[in-house]
Write a structure and sequence with these properties.
Blueprint: H1 4-40, E1 46-52, E2 59-67, E3 70-78, E4 85-88, H2 94-100, H3 104-137
Antiparallel strand pairs: 1-2, 2-3, 3-4
Length: 138
């Protein structure tokens, strides 16, 4: 009969294998999403709340934003923009990666909605400018 230590070590070995594998899949997934968004050259940011501490308003969110000169998926911590700590998702530790990866669909939906809103706003602005220019021709 295996002793408690042997059972624990075996469980640990199996868990480590699974965690390593799922972390690698998560890394590849985020790289693919970043590459897809970069390929669109959309330049629209977005955020998805991961958690908020109700007592202190300290929060963690997944963000798509310009970071070190290019758009990246990032993990952001803080209570307001002045005290934010921003780190590229790829540079986060495993715990943060696994905690935040579940918000990728919400983040992509936010970016898509913002892009749609910006498109509508830009179309309306172009129409107004065209009307002004047309009135100046008369």
């Amino acid at each position: 009969m295996p002793d408690g230590l042997s059972v624990s070590l075996d469980k640990l070995r199996k868990s480590a294998e699974k965690l390593n594998a799922i972390t690698e899949v998560a890394n590849q997934t985020v790289q693919s999403v970043e590459a897809f968004l970069a390929g669109l050259s959309i330049g629209v940011d977005g955020d998805a709340n991961v958690w908020t501490d109700d007592e202190s308003d300290y929060q963690c969110f997944l963000s798509y934003r310009r970071l070190n000169g290019r758009f990246r998926i990032a993990v952001v911590h803080g209570t307001c923009p002045e005290d934010e700590v921003v780190r590229a998702w790829a540079e986060c530790n495993r715990e943060e990666k696994l905690e935040t990866i579940v918000k990728i669909p919400e983040l992509v939906a936010c970016i898509a909605n913002r892009a749609e809103d910006r498109t509508t706003e830009a179309e309306e602005a172009v129409d107004v400018v065209k009307q002004v220019l047309k009135s100046l021709e008369n």
